[in-house]
Every structure is written in structure tokens, then in C-alpha cells.
Amino acid sequence: MTDKNELAQIGVVGLAVMGSNLARNFARNGNTVAVYNRSPEKTHALIEAHGEEGNFVPSETIEDFVASLERPRKAIIMVKAGKATDAVIDQLAEAMDEGDVIIDGGNALFTDTIRREKDVAARGKHFVGAGISGGEEGALNGPAIMPGGPKESWETLGPILESIAANVDGTPCVTHIGPDGAGHFVKMVHNGIEYADMQVIGEAYQLLRYGAGMEPAEIAEVFREWNSGDLDSYLIEITAEVLAQKDPETGAPLVDVIVDAAGQKGTGRWTAINGLELGVPITGIAESVFARALSSSTAQRSAAQEGQLPAGTIKELDVDKAEFIEDVRRALYAAKLIAYSQGFDEIKAGSEEFGWDVDPRDLATIWRGGCIIRAKFLDRIRAAYDNNADLPALILDPYFKGELEDLIDPWRRVVVAATQLGLPAPVFASSLSYYDSLRAERLPAALIQGQRDFFGAHTFKRTDKPGTFHIEWSGDRSLTQTD
Prior knowledge:
By secondary structure, this protein is α/β, with parallel strands linked by helices. It is 55% helix and 9% strand. The longest helix has 34 residues.
């Protein structure tokens, strides 16, 4: 149903699948929705196919679109990130009035959002960078939404976003994250956790397939069973569906006819880069990004296989199959915990660096539904931060420490088995190394500091007294205190 005379509570610019589904979600939940696309054909197609789902107000120009919105106007941009987003923001800011709200719902780099918020604020309007997770299905049926921007904009925007967000136990999966780029930063790290989660699930599959000799359909049943326990999550659920699927053309397992080169849109890479910039060791997330990059290095991989790189002695699995499956389950749970813990570490560091005051309890709450990384243990994560909002690391929470006590030995066995089988397990292994680094009494960094002092006079600190010191390496090797 459309009514050109009715003012809309919310507008959507960009009507590809995500934008179209989001507009339909707004309309289905009682909002009158203004819709605009640079190509009018997409606007017409949306109205023709789904106009009966609610109240839509279509426009063919930005000016008509803005005029169709009630004040303060609220418009969500769902266009390609980058220059296209900047162009639409400029058009809207030019046509809108003071106090109106422009929302970028795409996967924008948070530093771009910080810049855009300043620019739009200087023009008297509000700008909100909103992370939206859940893919096409979530956009239509209820995503998790992570809006940043001015607190005042949330007062106007909040009820509308709550009307379309996923809902868990009566709580909408949306809340105001913090100022300027906070929403897109949190969504970026969410996606980084997603990368690690997907990669370690893939490593578990690889171990069961080529270590235990199981077929995809059999592994699908294992994942279905896992999804009823501690690993209960969206990604485990859909993994079972993918592994059970047959190729419609050949009848072979679908996973066997899909090229093993994983793509990426950039958010995982941004997360890894930002972790380096902040000095936060998000090793599992970074390894998952590298794993995708390596999978896509098809020419290099082909050359390595043709050149028959030596494999050394490859052992066959010599443990009970059922025991190995259980070990993999526990190792997968452990590595997933590390991914979430590292992600929350990065969010804490980013919040401190940019002054956002992000509350980890809010994230654990809104990530329980709608988003790709939704998982049963997010309730436990929320409880952990309820008990201690200043946790040095999520895995130091008493509950998770207790869990890891039961997981650590199977985790070690799986990493050893992967090495002996010659199967890559970068996230399993790097996450274990991270865990062992945290618990190690001494790290080789002491030697590295000695090396740095030797070749660059970078100085070092001592364990037995305060101050900064340097050895006269090229002279008499005497000790000098530099401060």
C-alpha cells in the first residue's frame, strides 16, 4: 500500500537486497517508509512486489524523498561503502533541515564514520553510523543493530529501530553504542569475531573429514548434536545444513563442489589492522583473516602442490573416533571463547582510545539475537561482565576459567593431532599459543628486549629495580641507567 500524501516515519535510500529487506521490515512493523533508489526501476520493483506488506512512500528524487519524511527526518543509507555513501550523505545533508538524522547502515570503516559525523554536525544535522548484522534474512526478519552517533539522535531513532530489531526474552537487540564511530567500530569487531568463529568451525570440519575419515553428511549430524549443547549458535546450526546439502546437479556433497577459496568484504581485515594499531593481540581473528587470504592464493597453492612440498612423516589418527570427535568439540568451544575474549579486548581498547564508553554488557545482550555470531554462551558473557565490568580478559571470569579447565587437555591433543596429520589448524593453534602466553610466567620478550638494546640502544627495564637501562654493547659492556 502506498500513499504519497502520508509522511513517513523513516526513509531508506538504496534498494538492493539489504535495503529492500530493511524497508519491508520497517513497513511490516507498522512504520510508514519512504523509499528511494538512484535507479527508479528498483523502487518500482519493490512497490510492485511488496507494496501490500505495509505503507510505502516512493520517490524518484532525493528532494521528494526528503519532503516525504516527517520531522525530525530520519533516513537510512544502504548503498555501497565509500564514495557512493559520501555522495548520498552530501545530497541528504543539502536537502535536510537542522536536527534531521542521516543513518549509514552499511559496513563503513569507523574512521570514515568519525569524519562523516563531524562533517554532518557542522551542517546542523545528526549522523549515525549503525552496524546492522544478520544478513539478508536478518534485515527482513530482525537484525541486531549497533547505532553510534549523538545521544540525542537515539532518543528519536531508538523506538523505530527497536520495532524492527531481533528480540530475545523481551529485549530488542539494539541499543545506543556510543558517540560518532562507536557503532561501526563494534560492528567491525563483531565481524572479526565472525571470521574467527567461521574459520575454527572450518578447521573442526577439516579434522573430522580428513583426520577421522568422516563424510560430510555424517559430520552434519555431529554438528547438529553439538548445536544442542555449549556450542549452540547460529553458525554451528547453519554448518550442519551446509554439510548435509547435496549438489543439485551432481548429487555429490555440496561442500565438495565449492571452490575452497574464501572471499571477504574487508571488515575482518579492518579488525586485524586496528588490533595492530591498538596493540591488542587478537591472534585468532588475525589468523582467520590470513587463512582466507591464503585460501584465495590459488596460484601459489597450486604451485606448492605441483612442486610437492615435503610433508615429513604424516601419522594416521590412532585414537578412538568417538573420543577424537569429543576432543574436537571441546577444542572448538575453547577456540571460540578465545575469539570472543579477544574481540571484547579490542572493543575495550578502542572505547578507551576514542572515549566511547562502550558497555560490554550491552553487546553481549544485543548479540544474542539477529546477528551472525549469536550464541548461547552470550548469556554467560553478559553475566561475566555483570559480575565484574572491569574484567582484565573475558576468559578470566570464574565461569569461563572453570570451562577452560575441562577444555585445555582436549584442545592440546587436537592441536598435536592436526600437526601430526599434516592438517592446517591456524586458529586452533594460534589461540592455544595466545592462551599459553597469557599464563606463562616468563616470555621470550626479555631476549627480544636484549636484542633491541644491542642493535638499536632501545633500552630495557629490570626485574629487580625501577628505571630504564642500557648495556654499552660496543664498549666495556657496562650498565647505564638512562632514567
